[in-house]
Design a protein that fits this description.
about 425 residues, alpha/beta, eight-stranded mixed sheet, two-stranded antiparallel sheet, 12 helices, elongated
């Protein structure tokens, strides 16, 4: 993980390939390593002989030259739960990006960043769809769920979605009464930190301030081991990449924040191929998801104003979080690499996400974004996965030594053929002397 950011920031002259460790690669490494070690402890003659006779490996790939893909589409998904009441109901938007990132796209599984965020979003969709099924618990809030693509490329899916809803249509929940936008990012690590990242501290008597207070209430009363705090960071438009997804909404003046277990957006865990399924603690992910769900429910049903006890549990018994389902969703998400340049609009990942959202949400739609051909904000290339063959070869000095031996053999044969009489007499004299003795 320490060298990966350096590789991402460095332009290399030669291509760099990454592969999963297996017995064959370990054998090649062991033979190469033992050869280099033995040379350091041998005499000059032994080193020369070893150099001429040692085995080497030549790595050859069969792929073609990488080319830019001009018409690649990044896909995002939207679904909603409609609140009970009038037309001008407040709307809560829950967002998580599904794509992963790392130095090698085909090895980028993004278990925690941001498979855990997507798994938490889908579990929240399941829980609140149950609440919205019954009139007694059907709240007066619209809840939109948005699974965005291109999150690791400056949140391109979210940017286009906002443009479509705010600039290119007259009927959108985002144009009306948005209570707040909640972004979920990296929630499944093996620690007890939970942070609410904001671009602007929420004002009192606002829904976003109420959600902040409810998060504090839930963590302090029921999960005292969790260290919860708010992290304030202004949006820096001078940087090429935004820090968190909520900043996309903040630029469009929508109240938004991100809940994450990471205190800083610069944490290398967000962009590494080492973010594997084994790095996610499913119990901590379940706990963090429950904290968010309980806080959301307290805001939606206005429980604090109604005098509900702080330690009231809403999601219990038949409504409780399903850890097994949360784990299964995460296992499925991490069963395939999810780099943005690998997930096209026909991907089984998109189809399955769409099917899952249709089970619990209404009006599930797809949104696409393509790079501008004149001034593209992102550009993907093909040939991301190639087959490499290792051939066992001798060093070049071995060919030279072999050529010298062959030349000496041919020269000696030529001399014997040209002077066969002298050679025959010499051999005859030697044999006669041996017989006389």
């Amino acid at each position: 993980m320490e060298i990966e950011p350096e590789l991402l920031a460095t332009e290399t002259i030669v291509p760099v390939y990454f592969a999963l460790e297996d017995d064959e690669l370990l054998s090649i490494h062991e033979q190469t390593h033992s050869a280099s070690v033995s040379q350091g402890t041998s005499s000059a003659a032994e080193v020369l002989l070893h150099t001429a006779t040692a085995n080497g490996f030549q790595m050859v790939t069969s792929g073609a030259q990488s080319k830019a893909i001009s018409d690649w589409s990044i896909t995002s998904l939207e679904g909603k739960l409609t609140g009970l009441g009038g037309e001008d109901l407040p709307t809560i938007v829950i967002v998580a990006h599904y794509d992963s990132f790392g130095v090698a796209p085909w090895l980028s599984y993004g278990a925690d960043s941001n498979g855990s965020g997507v798994a938490a979003l889908l579990e929240l969709a399941r829980l609140f769809s149950k609440l919205y099924t019954y009139k007694r618990t059907h709240a007066g809030y619209n809840i939109m769920f948005f699974v965005s693509g291109g999150g690791k490329f400056n949140y391109q899916g979210t940017k286009r979605w906002l443009e479509d809803n705010l600039d290119h249509t007259d009927s959108s929940l985002l144009q009306d009464n948005v209570a707040f936008v909640l972004c979920l990012d990296t929630l499944g690590g093996n620690d007890d930190g939970l942070y609410l990242h904001v671009s602007k501290p929420p004002k009192e008597a606002t829904p976003q301030h109420a959600f902040l207070k409810e998060l504090e209430t839930v963590t302090s009363s029921r999960f005292p081991e969790v260290k919860f705090s708010m992290v304030h960071k202004k949006i820096n438009l001078a940087e090429d990449m935004l820090a968190w997804e909520h900043e996309r909404f903040g630029i469009r003046r929508l109240p938004a924040f991100t809940v994450s277990r990471l205190e800083s957006h610069r944490n290398s865990l967000r962009t590494t191929i080492m973010d594997m399924r084994s790095q996610v603690d499913i119990q901590k992910l379940c706990r963090n998801t429950k904290i968010i769900a309980e806080a959301l429910a307290r805001v939606i049903y206005n429980l604090t104003e109604k005098g509900a006890p702080e330690d009231l549990q809403i999601f219990t018994e038949q409504m409780q979080l399903q850890e097994d389902q949360l784990s299964s969703v995460l296992d499925w998400l991490t069963a395939q690499p999810r780099a943005a340049q690998l997930v096209d609009k026909d991907s089984i990942l998109i189809s399955t996400l769409e099917y899952y959202m249709n089970r619990y949400l209404k009006d599930v739609k797809r949104h696409y974004v393509k790079a501008d051909k004149r001034d593209p904000e992102f550009l993907f290339y093909d040939q991301l996965k190639q087959t490499m063959n290792a051939y066992r070869v001798k060093p070049a000095i071995f060919d030279l030594l072999l050529a010298l031996c062959i030349a000496a053999y041919l020269g000696l044969t030529y001399l014997i053929a040209q002077n066969f009489g002298l050679f025959y007499n010499l051999v005859r004299r030697i044999t006669l002397k041996q017989k006389q003795h």
